[in-house]
Write a structure and sequence with these properties.
Function: Catalyzes the decarboxylation of oxaloacetate coupled to Na(+) translocation.
Radius of gyration: 22 Å
Distance between the termini: 56 Å
Number of strands: 0
Largest sheet: none
Subunit structure: Heterotrimer of an alpha, a beta and a gamma subunit.
Membrane topology: Multi-pass membrane protein
Order of helices and strands: HHHHHHHHHHHHHHHHHHHHH
Helix content: over 70%
Structural class: mainly alpha
EC number: 7.2.4.2
Keywords: Cell membrane, Ion transport, Membrane, Sodium, Sodium transport, Translocase, Transmembrane, Transmembrane helix, Transport
Number of domains: 1
Length: about 375
């Protein structure tokens, strides 16, 4: 009888708690969204699977010595995985559209307004009974508005690791919902005539300019905002490998093997933080609501900035491209292009939208550096 009791005690059924069951269900829902609805599958699939693994009773994968524990502490807690992701993203990024029209930096900067407005909103939520965010937690939540998953993970791992799981899920969920959330905002803030505006063809950019740009960005970063140097530095290094043309093997490895491998590890490590004690809280609901608010506000700010620029610009700007100022590359640019074609079937805005889109990547990294400086 004692042997039978021992065997029963070692089964998952006997040790399964209600909270763990709920979180396993959450993990399965994320897997479903990734496979069936194609919602950011590269991250939501490993995150969902990591959530299932970490909530398996008695497996110990998220305890000292476990594989998920090791992945998290070696790659996420140290900030290594997000930085390597930025290296790969930099190697895949083409700044031609931004260099051909530098004014697009303003749109990328304007789209970060949602981040700082949400910082204030997260602190204001402390007035709600049961909700209490520190300045560090509020800063980590606010970065969701940049629609940049690696940046959100990096900042939350530095400022509020206890909220990492909820912030990562919110960030990647809203990135996946770009085609759903952005179009209504874009149509609400623009007229049909504005959406039909055709922009002049972009000028070609020299190879020298492409090589000098990441170096100039890095120099400005360490002079003005060194706290953003880890993210922007890795991003610029990846981009320099791409544009230099002398290390094609390294550039291709960063774009493919490296970023793919790190994405797997990052997703599993983030999923390991989706436990009942850290996720099933009132704070998580606040994070999801604030994340949606930040993202929508960032989209609106980008569109309104484009409309403002039209008042002083000799060459008309289609306000739709302001929505691409969030850092969801290249999905936000594709959504802008679709809205432009819907208004005028001959209006192709993809290359124009890529300017503020890549500017948004830099903008979200700069915003993260500012938040680290203020709240770190």
């Amino acid at each position: 009888m004692d042997t039978l009791n021992t065997l029963w005690a070692t089964t998952g059924i006997a040790s399964l708690t209600f909270g763990a069951l709920v979180m396993i269900t959450v993990g399965l829902v994320l897997i479903y969204l990734a496979i069936v609805h194609k919602f950011e599958p590269l991250l939501l699939l490993p995150i969902g699977f990591g959530a299932v693994l970490t909530n398996i009773p008695l497996a110990g994968m998220n305890e000292a010595g476990g594989v998920l524990y090791t992945l998290y502490n070696s790659g996420v807690a140290t900030g290594l995985f997000p930085l390597l992701i930025f290296l790969g993203v930099g190697a895949m990024t083409d700044f031609s559209a931004l260099l051909a029209n530098p004014r697009m930096l303003l749109l990328g900067a304007a789209a970060q307004f949602g981040i700082f407005a949400t910082l204030v909103g997260a602190i204001a939520l402390n007035l709600v009974p049961g909700v209490e965010f520190t300045i560090q937690q509020a800063a980590a939540i606010a970065i969701i508005g940049g629609a940049d998953g690696p940046t959100a993970i990096y900042l939350s791992s530095q400022l509020a690791p206890e909220l990492l799981g909820a912030i990562a899920v919110a960030a990647y969920s809203y990135m996946a919902l770009v085609p759903v959330l952005q179009p209504p905002i874009m149509r609400l803030l623009t007229t049909k005539k504005e959406r039909e505006i055709k922009m002049v063809q972009l000028k070609p950019v020299s190879k020298r300019a492409k090589i000098l740009f990441p170096l100039m960005v890095l120099i400005l970063t360490f002079l003005l905002l060194p706290t953003a140097a880890p993210l922007i530095g890795m991003f610029c290094f990846g981009n320099l490998m791409r544009e230099s043309g002398v290390v094609d093997r390294l550039s291709k490895a960063a774009q493919n093997e490296l970023i793919n491998l790190v994405t797997i590890f990052l997703g599993l490590a983030v999923g390991a933080q989706l436990t009942a004690t850290s996720f099933l809280t009132v704070q998580t609901l606040g994070i999801l609501l604030l994340g949606a608010f930040a993202f929508c506000l960032g989209t609106a700010a980008g569109v309104l900035m484009a409309k403002l620029m039209n008042l002083v610009s000799k060459q008309e700007i289609n306000p739709l491209i302001g929505a691409a100022g969030v850092s969801a590359v290249p999905m936000a640019a594709r959504v802008v292009n679709q809205e432009g074609l819907r208004a005028n079937q001959h209006n192709f805005l993809l290359m124009h939208a890529m300017g503020p889109n890549v500017a948004g990547v830099l903008g979200s990294a700069v915003a993260a550096g500012i938040l680290l400086a203020l709240a770190g």
